[in-house]
Amino acid sequence: MEVDGGEFISSPIFKTVRFGGTVTNILDKFLQGDTNDYELLKHQLLDPDIKDAQIISWLQEFRSCVTHLTKDFEQLVSVILRLPWLGRSQDVVEEYLAFLSNLVSAQTVYLRSCLSVTVSHFIPGRIVIKEGDVDISDSDDDDENLPRSFDLCHRALQIIARYVPSTARFLMPILREKFPFINKSARTLECYVHNLLRITVTFPVLRHEVLELVIGKMLRLDVSAPRRDIEDAEENAAQGYDGNGASQEECLFDMDEDEENVFNSSSPPGGDVMAHAVADRLDILMTVLLAYIKNICYVNGTLELTRTKELYRDLIAVFDKLILPTHASCHVQYAIFYLCSFRLGLAEAFLEHLWKKMQSPSNPAVIRQTAAGYIGSFLARAKFLPIQTVKACLDLLVPWLHQYIHSQDAGSKAFCDVSLHGPFYATCQAVFYTLVFRHRQMVEGNLRKGLAYLQMLNFERIVMCQLNPLKVCLPAVTNMFAAITRKYQLVFCYTIIERNNRQLLPVVRSSLGGDSLTTNANPLDSFFPFDPYLLKRSGKMIQPIYQVWEEVSVCDVGGARQTVKKDSVTEEDDDFLRGESLQSEAVVGFISGSFESHSVGSPPVAFLQRPF
After folding, report:
1. Measured distance CA(63)–CA(43) in Å, rounded
2. In this model, does residue 127 exceed pLDDT 80?
3. 507 by DSSP, 3-state: which?
4. Which residue, 147, 396, 474, 574, could crosslink 607 as a Cys pair with Cβ 3.0–4.6 Å?
5. Which helix (H) or strand (E) holds 303?
6. Residue 139: what pLDDT?
């Protein structure tokens, strides 16, 4: 943590101020009740036209009497710390950093103030534009000095940490407090998140908390941009409408300066801009986060296992705390998906982690169901998973299902009830979904051996059991699973499907007593976390490792599709029927109620092209 310009820190410089007295005299007079010169001093420091030479002179004077700047002069110190040192000459920068180091050394009471002022420069500054008699405040996104300014801010934090070893403990609350509101411009959020992640390089002890903060904010954006809204916005944009359904001509007067407009000139050129404003902000932040993950794990193009494992541990802790309990998030979970693609061992560790969550009775049922959904979606969609790993997971899941059926057969609860057997149904759906996506790989190369493996799984017992999983699983998954198992003559599901469909109303017995409860097409309220990725910029990093659905032809399934009723094709169906996700339009919320060679953002400044 060596700091350049050490001579500025150690050199004793003393000069008189321009109005004739010394700062020490002014401070003494203030303590005696004479505030005239003290107010004049603050007024001169606040001069918007202050010159570099004047700033250097003031800072040299304050350095000479830093021991006098006690808590009584908090207002004055606040003014000094807010001197416009960024974007100034190198002499001003070095003198300011020297004052900063002297201040935190002699007066630790100002540590929070120094950190707060430094962090406040992590976003583009505000400028005032005069239009007639009206002052309009806007963010200075076109500031060409942003790369240098951000470098200097991080250097300032290093200097403070050099003199105050406990800096990290005081820094984290300030980083949380200064995080911009999520409706701020994409550029503002991008700069702040980039600088937050860069802090984890200087202060590795803060990485877990920083990732938790960043991912927590990104989840708020994610759940505010449901998959259907993003798709509708893209469709409207293709027809000449903005993300809110209004034509471009109707959007000439946008009164919210911080709302990102999809036609804003600050967006990068080309077709990568998301029509949905919130999705566009999330897309940029996902690009920053994914590039950070790659930059940490790869050094000169080589995967560093130690660094990667440490990052995985931090990410999995954030996953457990924030991502897993968040229902129907669409994109943020792809951070762990992307990291797992770097090495098979990481993907296997993630699956093992989910398996332990799912099969542990000590976890809430809703968490176990979500973990099962993650397992099924990950096995189906992760192109980097070999079929041997998929089979190994099925060899855990399917025997667990058989054991569960065995434990229920002789009991009094052997009937279809989501509230009693939710984890069982979620695991059934995960297994069915995995088979739908991976069945070809299981039988290719050696059909006889592949069929023997599928027969060994004994799907017939699962399908025919009294718990009736086909009644609870999503219709899209049920029908495709039925078609595939019929093709391979594993089990004939259509008798059960027809029996379920013949009922006047699909009902599930309530374990709470009373009358039966009418169910919807998604009684598990399930979703597949790794459904198709919709964000355009960050999607370029996901596309090479993502398994898309390959349409199964009618001849492939032996004409079995004829049993699929039109009514069963709903908006909850997966993309293998309609290209849509499994998410319903329910309220989204918490269940319990390297850097690449380029970065997206405009203007494209150099600081986003460099490693963290």
Report:
1. 19
2. no
3. strand
4. 147
5. strand 302-303
6. 53
- Residue 371's pLDDT is 96
Query: Does a cis peptide bond (omega within 30 degrees of 0) precede residue 603?
Result: yes
d(CA 382, CA 374): 11
The set of residues, in sequence order, having a beta carbon less than 8 Å from that of 186 and lying 6+ positions away, is 260, 266, 267, 280, 281, 284, 601
Residue position matching structure tokens 């120094």: 114
Q: Among 578, 543, 551, 559, which residue's Cα sits nearest to residue 440?
A: 551
Residue with tokens 């239009």: 131
* CA 239/CA 222 separation, integer angstroms: 25
Residue 578 or residue 410, greater confidence: 410
Q: Please, where are the H alpha helices in 239-364?
A: 277-297, 305-318, 334-340, 344-359
What whole-number percentage of the chain has pLDDT above 90? 60
Q: What is the pTM of this model?
A: 0.81
Cβ 202 vs Cβ 161: under 8 Å: yes
Beta-bridge partners for 508: 517
In 471-547, which ranges are E strands?
507-508, 517-518
Phi, psi of 144 (to 5 degrees): -75, -10
Q: What string of DSSP letters covers 468-518?
A: -GGGTS-HHHHHHHHHHHHHTTS---HHHHHHHHHSSS-EE--TTSSS-EE
In terms of Cβ atoms closer than 10 Å to its own Cβ (0-12, 13-18, 19+), residue 244 is middle
For residue range 231-283, what is the model confidence (pLDDT) as tens digits? 999 998 888 765 454 444 443 333 344 444 333 434 444 468 999 999 999 99
552 CB neighbour count, 10 Å cutoff: 17
Give 3-state DSSP helix, strand, coil % of the chain, rounded to 5: 60, 5, 35
Rounded to the nearest 10 degrees, how much is the dihedral formed by the CA atoms of 405, 406, 409, 412? -90
Other Cβ atoms closer than 10 A to 279: 30
Asked if 203 and 168 touch (Cβ cutoff 8 Å), the reply is yes
Peptide bond into 544 cis (omega under 30): no
Taking 80 as the threshold, does the pLDDT of residue 609 lie above it?
Answer: no
CA distance 524 to 369: 8
DSSP state of 319: I
With a CB cutoff of 8 Å and minimum separation 6, the contacts of 556 are 487
Cβ-contact 571, 531 below 8 angstroms: no
Q: pLDDT tens, 296-320?
A: 999 999 999 999 999 999 999 999 9
